[in-house]
Design a protein that fits this description.
403 residues; mainly alpha; 17 helices; 66% helix; elongated
Length: 403
């Protein structure tokens, strides 16, 4: 590797106005998300004090009315309306009291028991996941995960805060970001930072052509500069995000667990005993085993596209379409594309947060989208891209590219 070229290219990326503007918008986005979106976001585990208080009063009135009429039995049915309502009333009243007393450990314990009751139909709450296409399936899945997460938190011995219950602490917020839009933001950043690193040299043909370095090695050096710059910038932005979240909602604890769906070849993968947890530290370690390699793949793809199209904005567009290509055909009942299993397409694994937790297996009703399969697919994709880039440098030589 030519270190003089490396330093020169790194300096160009650091001084790039395009990159500086992106970083500025990224910082604005972080601020908006933490101090506006997250602050106002009402999560499933958020306690609506006014609504819950009103429900407790309504249930109390209803129960007293039934008691006055002695309508407290279940008749010939094993299901008792009075008994179930009384169960719900006592739990909601206890949750409210624990919240008012700032006794969040008891509040979490009662909430976990409430979720158990929902799962066993001891409590009826019809609006729970009512907008889902698969409400019963999604409800059971959520409860299975959340109960295990809550049990691990209760057993961890750490001081429980309301922000932990809401999943708004720094570590929990980052965990949830990687389960939603996080992977795509990181990979798009790599695409954006590297979309012009090769094309911009067409404006300085003489200085580039005079370098005593092979064409492939020249592109390889630029790729290393791009991945180095991208990783340093994103690590810096990640640190800023963690600090801001910690100041706003607390840091959380690495003793917290992340619920996962463990996949087996045989049996019904949605049974309760198929769920387990992994440590928060292991979850992030698995996340960051994907990030740099997938970033490097997209940077190398940018080089290939640049060789043939030679326009930075077209490079950005084509790479972005590849990144988001799964969105064009994704559906919860779609397990094949062109009669080929989607586990054989690399874009299936760009959403690596959901791969690690088994969420994608659940959504698509599969058992093939595993962490190990993701690593294999990622490495195979890297090899194919490297081979194609090498062949492309033979087709589009240095002279042909600049002329």
């Amino acid at each position: 590797m030519n270190f003089s070229l490396f330093r020169y290219e790194l300096k160009l990326m650091i001084q790039s106005r395009k990159n500086l503007l992106f970083i500025l918008f990224f910082l604005i986005g972080i601020s908006v998300y933490i101090f506006i979106v997250l602050e106002k976001e009402v999560k499933i585990e958020s306690l609506d004090v006014e609504k819950t208080s009103s429900e407790v009063m309504e249930l109390e009135s209803l129960q007293k009315a039934r008691e006055s009429r002695r309508h407290t039995g279940g008749g010939y049915s094993p299901w008792s309306f009075y008994s179930n309502n009384n169960h719900k009333y006592l739990l909601n009243r206890g949750i409210l009291q624990a919240y008012e007393d700032q006794n969040f450990e008891r509040m979490l314990y009662l909430r976990t028991y409430y979720l158990y009751s929902l799962y066993n139909n001891s409590i009826i709450e019809e609006e729970f996941f009512q907008d889902s296409d698969f409400p019963w399936k999604d409800r059971a899945h959520y409860i299975d995960k959340k109960v295990r997460e809550n049990e691990a938190l209760l057993q961890s011995g750490i001081e429980i805060t309301y922000e932990m219950i809401e999943e708004k602490t720094a570590l929990q917020a980052l965990k949830n970001i990687f389960l939603t839009f996080g992977p795509y933001i990181l990979l798009f950043s790599a695409i954006y930072f590297s979309n012009d690193v090769l094309v911009r040299d067409r404006n300085q043909t003489s200085s580039v052509q005079g370098l005593p370095i092979s064409w492939y090695q020249y592109i390889h050096t630029k790729s290393l500069v791009a991945i180095t710059y991208t990783l340093f910038i994103l690590i810096g932005l990640l640190i800023v995000t963690v600090i801001a979240l910690t100041l706003s909602k607390g840091f959380g604890s690495f003793k917290m667990e992340v619920p996962i769906l463990t996949v087996h070849e045989e049996g019904n993968m949605w049974f309760t005993n198929e769920y387990s947890t992994i440590s928060m530290l292991k979850y992030f370690a698995m996340i960051f085993s994907f990030v740099p390699v997938f970033m490097y793949i997209f940077i190398r793809l940018n080089m290939i596209i640049s060789l043939f199209l030679r326009n930075e904005w077209i490079v950005l567009l084509v790479s972005s379409l590849l990144l988001f290509s799964e969105r064009f055909y994704y559906a919860r009942d779609k397990q094949k594309l062109f009669n080929i299993g989607i586990e054989n397409f690399p874009q299936t694994f760009f959403d690596f947060g959901k791969i690690i937790t088994g969420e994608k297996n659940f959504l698509l009703y599969m058992n093939k989208l595993t962490y190990e399969k993701g690593l294999i697919m990622m490495l195979m994709t890297l090899i194919l891209v490297e081979v194609f880039l090498f062949l492309s440098t033979k087709i589009v030589t240095k002279d042909r590219f600049f002329n």
